[in-house]
Amino acid sequence: MLSMELFRNEAGKIRADHDKRGIPHDKIDQVIDLDKQWRTALKEMEESRRERNIAAREIADAKKSGDKERSDRILAQVKDLGDRISSLDEKADQLLAQRDSLRMRIPNLLHESVPVGEDEAGNTQHSLHGEKPNFDFEPRTHNELIEMNKWVDLERAAKIAGSRFFFLKGDLARLEMALQTYSVDFLLARGFTFVQPPVMMNRQAYEGVTDLSDFETVMYGITPDPLYMIATSEHPLTAMYMDEVIEPSQLPIKMVGVSPCFRREVGAHGLSDRGIWRVHQFTKIEQIVISHPDDSWGHHEELLQNCVDLWDELGLHYEVVNICTGDMGTVAARKYDLEAWLPGANAFKEIVSCSNCTDYQANRLRMRYRTSGGNAAVHTLNSTAVATSRALVAIMEQNQTEDGRVKVPDCLVSFMGGKTHLEPCNW
User: Fold this and answer.
1) For the segment 60-93, what is each residue's pLDDT rounded down to a tens digit?
2) In whole angstroms, what is the distance from residue 382 CA to residue 400 CA?
3) DSSP conformational letter for 112
4) In which domain, by residue range, is 28 found?
């Protein structure tokens, strides 16, 4: 969330950002008004406490001098102060909770370079990579490829878990493991530390990393325990230093996380979203950076370059997209997406999101670094490296052969025991 200093001293910046996004200012005004009421209640409470302390000293002096009449008179004058202080304390707590609840729903300030647009149609192409595959046969969709090669069993997974779950089999399952190992090794060579996070989080931590009013509908809750299954390893890795002060010598902290991810993926989706493209459980390799504020925009470009280099090595055709104001979520200040070309859908579709969240998550998580003038919020950044199920779809559709086999990307052959093509599963 945005710092209160912004609301108190630079509210015009927040209003201008809302204008870019096309949203009203009413919540900004409410936060400012609640903050004023909260500070007034605190001031009145402190004045009442001071008055009570003065009265206590005067009563003690009166009793010491034997002046019972004066002692009783002062006591009568301040007899309601205790109740007043308690009432003001309760009021201040309520105002603070209301203020910060509203503040958590106000989006981050966008970077000045974010293109203005009403929805995803306003996104702009940043760069184009790889050669668009040309086929001298009618290319199959990934759904057709997994069915003819028996690499995925959707029906039996639905029988035991429901729709949008799957069994992954044979060479395709082995390729999924190869993607994980390749991606982790790639990022370890660039100075990242491999971290495997818990796959459940409590509500307090989750509210620190995302806007639950938007995101909770796609998450799986755990009952009776107050926990959520993680939707991405970004969330536990970013929250790892919640309520801590980080020594500046530790920054930047760079992590590569691998985890299963769980999403309800509610709503209707098109034909190209079937199969293993949009599912309830998938594996993702994620980049996380916890950074000094002065360095975060350089790290954002570094995360993007890591994605570009990694996907270039996979030899696939894709584009990098600048996400516009109308397509930006609550948390990020700037975001790039990578979109792979899917011949079966005849369209580019998202495979990577790369975001700088500046101090927005850190303020919610109370995550600071030490400075000579006190503690200040760090910046947090995240980027998908590979969401394996979507990478498999892109590889299958772009690298398919006429007989239905799939060529293994050169960089993954060594992780596949030298196998250059995916062969059908026999059951």
Assistant:
1) 877 778 877 777 777 777 777 788 888 899 999 9
2) 32
3) T
4) 4-103
